[in-house]
Design goal:
By secondary structure, this protein is an alpha/beta fold. It has 14 helices and 9 strands. The strands form 2 sheets. Strands 1, 2, 3, 4, 5 and 6 form a 6-stranded parallel beta sheet that branches. Strand 5, helix 7 and strand 6 form a beta-alpha-beta unit. Helix 7 packs across helix 14.
Length: about 425
């Protein structure tokens, strides 16, 4: 059996699992769709806009991680944005220091994907470099940054991380920080809904700096008010690098139709994330277990303010049990994932929608559970009637266009600022 035949067999097996999950019987059409998907992946640039990586990642080995170089080669993925991500914690000096150290460790892991295997991967700092690296048959590693918590309150850290190679920047994750309110404030940290009213003064300064540096602003995870603050201030298009739609699942993390339309009006792009609980409602039996857990801990059905008075150990215990229950839900299916892509395309057009996985941080659906199965997504898009040019847009073309526009805007803003400075010096 040739390597391409083995790959097709593997993809057909995962596609069959997805078909079974959707209540369908795999047929000869699946094989034809996968063969066409493989042909398309050899011709277009495919880019996953948000991937997390474990600090101990061995990218050269086909291991437990949902992302490594073996899997991206199997799925014919051209590149990905790997996130320097550190979760939010209480804002204390000790936690800021730990977050900085954790960010440094994650950064080294990401850089080493390319440095340790230069024949297979290379760092990319622009969309043009992503395309050039892909033409060489290598994998393009783009460095993104999610959650400004490790930066403390130091605006100049944006310059520092830009110099280290960060080209995509998201203000927060779950939990408010000094820069912006989150779509998911954490009561255990003392967070309140919309506590700063969107972006803080620091966050608003950061938008201007990110624009001038040509860093693409990631609006995923922001509260609605923070999103609208960002859109009102930014002078460049933005990206939601890993988001889903509220029209299918009413979750504070998901984007409403109005938010989708606002991002499209800005010229930006919404990268639909393959995260199960944002793609289909949480099954009723799982909801019942969560309800029972809350009752056990004396929590009302929705209000979490009581957690703020709990000791740290009790908060940790409750959170662990909650995550265990949520994780017990069956995976969402590939069809459910593409349903969200369809929804977004119908609302804001195919030029403003893209694909992301959030692998290694909860992402993954039956049929696309690691980067090696990326062609299954394309096969499902083909099944829905998407054309090759449309698939090229969804799989990276739109994202790279928006990122390029953010970099172009940065050059103009930087040149304008430099001109104004020289003019002031001349007059003095």
């Amino acid at each position: 059996m040739t390597s391409s035949s083995k790959l097709l067999f593997t993809l057909l097996a995962s596609f069959a699992l997805q078909a079974a999950a959707d209540g369908k019987t795999p047929n000869t059409e699946d094989k034809a769709l996968l063969q066409k998907a493989q042909q398309i992946h050899h011709k277009i640039v495919t880019f996953d806009s948000h991937v997390d990586v474990p600090v101990d990642l061995d990218a050269a080995t086909d291991g437990k991680s949902q992302f490594d170089l073996v899997k991206v080669e199997r799925g014919h993925l051209s590149g990905a944005a790997l996130a320097v991500f550190v979760p939010q914690a209480k804002r204390t000096p000790e936690n800021y220091e730990k977050a900085r150290a954790d960010a440094d460790a994650k950064y080294e892991t990401i850089v080493n994907v390319a440095k340790k295997d230069p024949n297979r991967a290379a760092l990319a700092y622009s969309p043009a470099e992503v395309r050039n690296i892909a033409k060489q048959g290598k994998f393009a590693v783009v460095i993104s940054f999610l959650n400004a918590f490790p930066l403390g309150r130091d605006l100049s850290q944006i310059d520092t991380w830009y110099d280290r190679g960060v080209r995509i920047f998201g203000f927060n994750h779950a939990g408010n920080n000094d820069w912006a309110d989150s779509s998911r404030p954490i009561s255990g940290f003392g967070d309140k809904q919309d506590e700063t009213g969107g972006l803080s003064a620091l966050g608003k300064q950061a938008v201007a700096k990110l624009n001038e540096k040509g860093i693409l602003i990631d609006v995923s995870q922001l509260s609605t008010k923070a999103l609208y603050d960002t859109l009102a201030i930014t002078k460049a298009p933005v990206a939601a690098t890993h988001s889903a739609v509220k029209g299918i699942v009413d979750n504070s993390r998901n984007l409403s139709d109005e938010e989708l339309q606002a991002i499209a009006k800005n010229g930006g792009v919404v990268q639909i994330v393959a995260f199960g609980n944002y793609l289909r409602p949480i099954p009723q039996d799982v909801q019942d277990k969560v309800k029972a857990l809350r009752a056990e801990y004396g929590l009302p059905e929705k209000d979490d303010t009581l957690q703020q008075s709990w000791p740290a150990e009790k908060q940790k215990e409750y959170t662990a049990r909650w995550h265990e229950i949520i994780a017990s839900a069956p995976k969402a299916t590939l069809a459910q994932y593409v349903n969200s892509i369809d929804y977004a395309v119908k609302k804001i057009g195919v030029d403003h929608v893209g694909i992301s996985s959030d692998f290694n941080h909860g992402g993954g659906v039956t049929g696309w559970d690691n980067e090696g199965e990326a062609e299954n997504v394309t096969a499902e898009l083909l099944r829905r009637g998407y054309t090759e040019p449309q698939i090229a847009k969804l799989w990276g073309g739109n994202f790279l266009r928006v990122w390029s526009e953010a970099q172009s805007a940065g050059k103009k803003l930087s040149a304008s600022a430099h001109h104004s400075h020289n003019k002031q010096v001349h007059h003095v």
